[in-house]
Write a structure and sequence with these properties.
By secondary structure, the protein is α+β, with helices and mostly antiparallel strands. It contains three helices and eight strands. The protein has an eight-stranded mixed β-sheet. β7 and β8 form a beta hairpin. The protein is elongated.
Length: 151
């Protein structure tokens, strides 16, 4: 029985909470695609090569394309990196380190995903209400036109 229990435990998927190393590309995609505005640091052998702020435009997985950081925009290809480290800065802010050999691209979110989600939800609800109002007004206009046509 204990052997079965050990066997079942070894089949469990990893669970990372606020820190850890992610090697699965699909998991890396899932973590990064919610990022919006970030500050980034590009380090090689621990030496800071560049840093700045930008907007994550796209996160994708394609072994034929590059990760691009330019003009305050980031196009991140998870295939450009061996793994992703999740951690916290000294200020207790989450960071995501994309690591490939001696190169590290650190991303620190500048936007709050909870606020972004609420804003998107509110914007979606507002847009849906506007569309419903427009459709209703259009139907009313059509009915008025039909009524005038019948007279």
């Amino acid at each position: 029985m204990s052997h079965e229990r050990v066997k079942n435990v070894s089949q469990l998927a990893p669970c990372l909470v606020d820190s850890g190393v992610v090697v699965n590309k699909a998991d890396m995609l899932r973590l990064l695609q919610d990022l919006a505005q970030v500050s980034y640091s590009h380090l090689e052998d621990g030496v800071l090569l560049s840093e700045g702020q930008g907007l994550v435009m796209e996160v994708f997985a394609d072994p034929q394309q590059a990760t691009l950081v330019a003009n305050s925009t980031l196009y991140i290809n998870v295939h450009s990196f061996d793994y992703l480290e999740i951690g916290k800065t000294v200020c207790e802010q989450s960071h995501f380190d994309l690591v490939q050999d001696n190169r590290r691209l650190r991303l620190v979110p500048l936007s709050d995903p909870m606020k972004e989600h609420l804003t998107r939800t509110v914007n979606t609800a507002t847009l849906e209400a506007m569309v419903a109002d427009a459709l209703s007004a259009s139907w009313d206009a059509c009915l008025d036109d039909d009524h005038n046509f019948l007279e």
